[in-house]
Amino acid sequence: MTINASSDRVRRPGGWLPERQDDLEEWIAGHRERVEARGEDAALHPVIVEFKELIASDPVVRLYMTEMIEQVPKLKPYRKRHLTSVDQMLRLINEVLTTAPEFSEGGMVTTPLTAILDWTMGTEAGFAAHRDPRIIAIAPASRPHTR
Prior knowledge:
mainly alpha, 0% strand, L-tryptophan decarboxylase PsiD-like domain-containing protein, PsiD-like
């Protein structure tokens, strides 16, 4: 049995992320460019500061966060690695928390945090991280209506 799957199509249940991998990568690239243009000294949302402190002070959390980025496969459809470090990931999340949603003619990214964490969530470390009570305790604070 042969399966003909376009290299550009990835099954994305729920419609939270664009069906076309190119649309997702285009959004991530634009988001990363905006973050890099702000520089590393950009003000951080209080929940990102709290998360950064947790990562710095807890070796297990730091291991989860570092390893989930490292464990992303280096094969297709992971053509371009959009996360290279925990600090970069925190700055990308910070941008989502501090910027209004945007309109795009391309594929719609309805959950930007999922776009940033998409590949890392499927790793062993990502699975462990997103089930860790210390990380979960910070996650509700990232919702705009709680702060």
